[in-house]
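Sample 1 of the test manifest.
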Amino acid sequence: MATKKSKSNKENLMDNKVWGGRFREGTDEIVDRFNASIAFDRNLYSQDIAGSIAYCRMLAKQEIMSQEEAKQIIDALTEIKGEMDRGEFSFDEASEDIHGAVEKALVGKVGSLGEKLHTGRSRNDQVSLDVRLYVREAIGRMIALIKDMQRALIGLAEGNLDLILPGYTHLQRAQPVLLSHHLLAYNEMLKRDRQRFQENLKRVNIMPLGSAALAGSTFDLDRAMVAKELGFDEITKNSMDAVSDRDFVLEFLFASSALMMHMSRMSEEMVIWSSQEFGFINLPDALCTGSSIMPQKKNPDLPELVRGKTGRIYGHLIALLTTMKGLPLTYNKDMQEDKEALFDTVDTVELCLTVMTRLFEEISFDGERMREAVKKGYLAATDLADYLVGKGVTFRQAHEKVGKIVLYAMDEKKELDQLNLEELKTFDEQMEKDVYEWLDPALCIKRREIHGGTGPKGVKKRLKEAKREIET
Amino acid sequence: MATKKSKSNKENLMDNKVWGGRFREGTDEIVDRFNASIAFDRNLYSQDIAGSIAYCRMLAKQEIMSQEEAKQIIDALTEIKGEMDRGEFSFDEASEDIHGAVEKALVGKVGSLGEKLHTGRSRNDQVSLDVRLYVREAIGRMIALIKDMQRALIGLAEGNLDLILPGYTHLQRAQPVLLSHHLLAYNEMLKRDRQRFQENLKRVNIMPLGSAALAGSTFDLDRAMVAKELGFDEITKNSMDAVSDRDFVLEFLFASSALMMHMSRMSEEMVIWSSQEFGFINLPDALCTGSSIMPQKKNPDLPELVRGKTGRIYGHLIALLTTMKGLPLTYNKDMQEDKEALFDTVDTVELCLTVMTRLFEEISFDGERMREAVKKGYLAATDLADYLVGKGVTFRQAHEKVGKIVLYAMDEKKELDQLNLEELKTFDEQMEKDVYEWLDPALCIKRREIHGGTGPKGVKKRLKEAKREIET
Amino acid sequence: MATKKSKSNKENLMDNKVWGGRFREGTDEIVDRFNASIAFDRNLYSQDIAGSIAYCRMLAKQEIMSQEEAKQIIDALTEIKGEMDRGEFSFDEASEDIHGAVEKALVGKVGSLGEKLHTGRSRNDQVSLDVRLYVREAIGRMIALIKDMQRALIGLAEGNLDLILPGYTHLQRAQPVLLSHHLLAYNEMLKRDRQRFQENLKRVNIMPLGSAALAGSTFDLDRAMVAKELGFDEITKNSMDAVSDRDFVLEFLFASSALMMHMSRMSEEMVIWSSQEFGFINLPDALCTGSSIMPQKKNPDLPELVRGKTGRIYGHLIALLTTMKGLPLTYNKDMQEDKEALFDTVDTVELCLTVMTRLFEEISFDGERMREAVKKGYLAATDLADYLVGKGVTFRQAHEKVGKIVLYAMDEKKELDQLNLEELKTFDEQMEKDVYEWLDPALCIKRREIHGGTGPKGVKKRLKEAKREIET
Amino acid sequence: MATKKSKSNKENLMDNKVWGGRFREGTDEIVDRFNASIAFDRNLYSQDIAGSIAYCRMLAKQEIMSQEEAKQIIDALTEIKGEMDRGEFSFDEASEDIHGAVEKALVGKVGSLGEKLHTGRSRNDQVSLDVRLYVREAIGRMIALIKDMQRALIGLAEGNLDLILPGYTHLQRAQPVLLSHHLLAYNEMLKRDRQRFQENLKRVNIMPLGSAALAGSTFDLDRAMVAKELGFDEITKNSMDAVSDRDFVLEFLFASSALMMHMSRMSEEMVIWSSQEFGFINLPDALCTGSSIMPQKKNPDLPELVRGKTGRIYGHLIALLTTMKGLPLTYNKDMQEDKEALFDTVDTVELCLTVMTRLFEEISFDGERMREAVKKGYLAATDLADYLVGKGVTFRQAHEKVGKIVLYAMDEKKELDQLNLEELKTFDEQMEKDVYEWLDPALCIKRREIHGGTGPKGVKKRLKEAKREIET
């Protein structure tokens, strides 16, 4: 952590700065190290160059530079992009940020002509543009990956339509459900996640260039043209807001947090279901890991790690919320902290989505263990109460009676369908033989053909609908 | 904190429970105290009763109860609602929750008939319904209050179109801007806040009843009818998701967090601007407070407190995100923790919006102090560089030259417009008399008629547009 | 949310203020409503009065007031305290805060003499004092409650020394352990929690009075005397820090967060263990609740709710961290937001501790289910590898060999101890009959008498030690 | 994000695993990519090797391996460490983690002998050891860096003992204080920060090896010897807790959060003080940066960025708290998420401390601007009230009277010391000529020689004391 005061001559130190004129001495080495964002904002190179090319075209059209000048600049930028794409570009560690690195490379190729590109532009609006382009692309990938997971889930649900398992509340067996119904609950979560990213896009896809530092440019820029070139829907309406707004990043972090929360719930179930005690699922060896000491272990590391990474994304969200709190207008250096949180969120969530999708593609179920689980735990108790309601008992009384039947059965170490009619009649005279139809798990499920319920017909219908939804 | 084990007879203890049948002993007093949500979910009484009335109508239509029975129940519920509205209803502290309290009161009025109302319904879907109704109403109020604040801001911007002040980056004077332009930046923030609440509504306004505990009801319920009665756009598509989804609350907490973040930024500026050093604004005595020890103090408590309460709302967001992390399907008791965070968020944000609006209505500006501030700090330096660009200098060279002029002026203890033409020419021969037009703050502003910039015409146009926007 | 501008005469409005002189108009009703802390800081009444009594004694000793005056004031304060204790005091809703309410009541009793009490004091140092007294008491209760839980755990561990269950990693069965060893792991967590609260106390128990508003009082106050009267260890060393420091509250919130995290882990295990699939524990009916719709349900609401409330405490921590971020010195109104987060944390954590302790007192284990669980899942695999190491095989080779034995056994649908010696020898010739001693769960446990391990002697020793620790 | 299913032969894929025996197929490429921690836990190489060397010595002493074997292993480990130190070691990307990478390199050097090292050890206790060693070192550096900053602050305070400025509450001028007193308030914050790290150390410096996977090792390990070799104070007392405890990391993150919060407050003041409006400080050019568009700008980026990075550290704290919430015992893969948050916290906070210290070393004050600021704003009002108390007026009445004097002075556009005695007497007859002594800022400061106050003697004394404190 030692820090040298490098008071060597200013010229060298200012070489990589785009703002040296007013300074009497070079910046301290620690400032460069602390301030510089090049280590992470180089991620934005393709967005930065795409933005500059569109901006350059507009400058030419507006005759702020000549068509010939623009051509030279655009060719050079395209070259630089190629070098970066191929990993041939050597980033000067002394560059402050990606914008400075690109500009310097440009001047290296076309000489002082390159110094014209920044006319009417500031890093403040440029960075906003670059990040918007980056988020827009990330949203595109997120939505595609979410759809992949939905596809895997729907496939899994279709392939296991015959399986039933206990639905749980409070991790206590509650009522029998179709496994497919359970899996489609995940699909609903993902559907909302997609919607949120889609809505986020509305506030991402707005073009900020022309805002300059904060007050707007004095040059006659054609903002709409830049927007069109770059595929933006709108242009920003207030320059001071444009350079100090990070709402669109926060929304992305929130949409990601909600998505991670959903995946943490799926993960929790995979972990629980793959315990020896539940034994509902088998994860393939290829998606598990072992122990350095215990030879028998096969651990569900993937869902555990997805669950664990939820904290990381929540952390990024709270980090940027904290950073933005109480900042006066307009741009403040604090806002540079938006990028690493964003980049790590994109990388992490994409990887988690990919991993979970693989899991859903490879997972297999132990239908036998599930079926056994449905048999114990009085899961038909609600249906028994509903049966009594059919006989004219009020629901509360029916609930009370069935509660007592359950107590009796527990004492007898029997399940409800093991009680004979006589026993049942002691609790309510109206019980008839048809009561046993209400105690069969498969029939319990069939009885729930209400819209949104676990009834097999409804589930199949919903499966079809869900497939259609992901095609849009 | 002492806790008595109250093993008194079960009957009494179960009096207020809707699930006693299967239990051999009454619940412990600490369970009641810890579990009960009646202390806060009584907030939901009007939503709960509205939901029950609609549900009851549907039960009658579906002939699950008779029209006559339904009428009795609805009349009784309406009566109960009236008592609660008037504060005459005495909540039994022993009630577990608002649902139990209402049901008990209903049975008190109509006898065992009241026990029929819960047919086909569970607290799991009932609480989802109630909270959705609550959030829907809260969103309506939020949007109205945000519009109020936008109105106040627009009024303030219109009433002070002649004022200019420094625009800041890094809290350093940057370029002159119209005060109205600055205030309209706030308006942009609020516009996005409204959008977010509006989008939140899409996922709120979906009707969950019929999902029952988790698997769907066995009764032939007309879910669409209930939705229509209560003004919902859709019905939920998966019963397991319906009872375990709290996304719509999380979104509300996030939209509130972003809004509070914006208000914290406005507050920070009010606090800074009302310091003696800045002196840009005067807060009326009636909106300030004093000190118990320092007789001269007049403190901007309101914006400070708004800024401080930002943490509270972030805290609620992270609280519910944490609670939901890793929960298996479907309902778990943890989820009861959604309510207090939500209620306090609604109350806090509404109050903050009201307070900030009052501030914007009452605030006055010290135009003289602002104008003075614009004069010092070389705020026209960018325009001077742009002037040189007009003479054919590349932007980077122009920037460098003006940097050196600023250094020179600082040494001479002069501002840019105090340098004579001779002095300016030593930095670039092309300087002419017209350069002084580029150094006048008012003209700096006029030169920025670019869309979104601080130019007076553009600002006026944007004001008109902004007014129209809040009428939609 | 409507807000009336109450410009009625100033005198009335300023009645309850301690700072009216410099104001030309009364404060707006919304200011009072928004700013006032009386609704929650009345919690601090006993601390406030205790502080005032000590302060008053010192003023008399320093001859800033007479002994006679002090006596009158102290008597009156004691009376007020009594009224508040008995719930007879009617808090004037118009009071700004508890300090104003007490001062007003004092003046009501002793006339203008009461106005002398605030000599040399500010609300800024007064509120710091009150909160410090409050946190000090809360820490005392926390520590006592944690000890109660440790006692319950130790009792449970002592009473079940014969029970074994699988120890888990990744929720997969790993190695057999004593239940008591598992329970003592909780005890270690709680031990650290106690330490943290204890350390927190060091920074709480410092007396701030004399700091006045921010710069120190001009009166000749004997700060050490006040500290001694109130049982403080030290006095604050810098007045500006004293009135703007909330570290001690943040530490309390963090210590509480860590404690809740621990309880969330215990809760998770209780929930999982009380599932039908695990079936390791029975929660008594009196500590569970049922379902409004499913008559058979008995839900572990208490641990679920404790787990859920973890989010709430994390939220309070992040709320105050956010509030304090970026505040300039010294006191800012934002800091008023410390109190509700603190109070709710104290109430919530105390209740959670009480509830968890009750659970540990009442819980019973199903030793049979646990023992069965130990038998399946190859939990002795590590011991088998260790056995081979004893024969001179390197650990990695032993691990590899046992891995293959496990695979073989799975194919044969056998557990390790069901393989005969011949079968075992095919994997390593050196296997002898004594290998079966390494496959018996009870012996696996006995073999781990290493310090800190699950060996029965070590566990018993640790139990004794743990008992001693909570007596200190 | 594409993911290939690499079902190539298992042998290769398991090459870098320490647990292959029981697996029928190689792990999927995505598992390796997602699970592997080698990309970040290579940071722990020196801790890992130090731990292994100590462990190896103990194995030899306990005759679990021979002295000769141990020597070979230790020599090889030392060689590996050297290669890593010099950057010559090529990390195999296929390694799962640093433990596997080191073990593989060891086997590469000494053959199958290397496979003995893991005897009696698990990655679960090994990773706990490594992280504890890492945090211990980090705490050492943190404490040293905090002391450096305290030294810089004390130097600054000593060098500017003659400067006065307004003390602020609510960012409103309150009372005159010595600049040195203000700077010493920062010192108090840092003192507490040091204490917290020091206390954290108690729970860090406990040796976990011997806990093995979770239940303790079956080998006769001398845990105390390992602890002594590695400088630990204690050994862990419960193996299940030892492998699932991350409290010591959480505490470190909290102590860092509190420290960042303090630095964010100092930063906020630097930013405000370096605004043109306040103008209290000058940051040297070498510690500032400029604008890409505005040639005159000199921005306080460093304190802004420190302030902004506060969010990042809060984020890491909430991330790990979230991750740990609700995890059952013992080790779960989620816990791997502790490392990146920890590493980034260490790097970030160290850099922020270094940067802030540099700022305090280089900063200079504009004593003239500060003095002017003290003159306006009625900062002596409290002293005037105290003066009246000296004449027998009760404090409340004195406060009221002075409030009215301030109002009068404002109307007259005068400061208090510009009012003549006649004018003052109209508010209280007892005013005498000596009142002007109470209105002189320098005397206001001198009058506060109360312990902890801003009186010059006290401040000098505290400076001496503070110097002594950082020598311990």
